[in-house]
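Most newcomers find our protein records easier to grasp once they have seen one. To make this concrete, we reproduce a full record directly below:

…
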Amino acid sequence: MHRTDFNELLEAGAHFGHLKRKWNPAMAPYIFTEKNGIHIIDLNKTVVKIDEAANAMKQIAKSGKKILFVATKKQAKDIVSQLVKPTGMPYVTERWPGGMLTNFATIRKAVKKMSTIDKMATDGTFNNISKKEKLQISRVRAKLETNLGSIADLTRLPAALFIVDISKEHIAVAEAKRLNIPTFAIVDTNSDPNLVDYAIPANDDASTSISLITALIVKAIEEGLSERKLDKDSETEQKEGAKVAAEAPSEGTGEAETAKPGAGTRKRKTIGEKR
């Protein structure tokens, strides 16, 4: 069963592409028709591509790996951060820091700097510096929080990227491609779907379209996380069961012990009969 359908996508305005003169010829397989100079996306193909992307995302989440969401455009940033935050997955919704992936060690240093400033606030270091220095450090901390706060827990490179508008986030796409990190993206008629591994042909400008597709992807991730938890719980139960079985006395020993008195009794009866 499909995760969404033609009508739901239609209501969200996912079928509206860009002006015909702005199109990318590589999107031709996903264009249904042209109306009033605007390309209309074939939503039947969008349904299939959403299923493919969601199923792949589910497996990545189930494996315990991180998926980085990238959406810095105005109409997408708040939607993505609100939908993704509950899953614990990292996201970039402000500015893509150059070298975020290709120079990941430097980004980690910036995150550690943020942690150091937090430690200064709790260990009393702030009490021994001037108000001016304290203000400067606080401003640095606020800037780091804005740019890197959502990736503070990303200790290693993500297993995949989900991108809204690959034309705007072309640097993120290029970095992921260079490192062979799988990419998933909402791709509009003005972009090249061949630049990403899982292209979802849809309107990447309308907030309703972005919200619906991102929510479907997030739901798939939640399913993967839930299955991972169930597998872990099942594994724990099996280990505990095996441990209890190993510590319990064997049934063979119990039978041998109960058989001895019976054997002795039979022997005494035999002697009595002989007498």
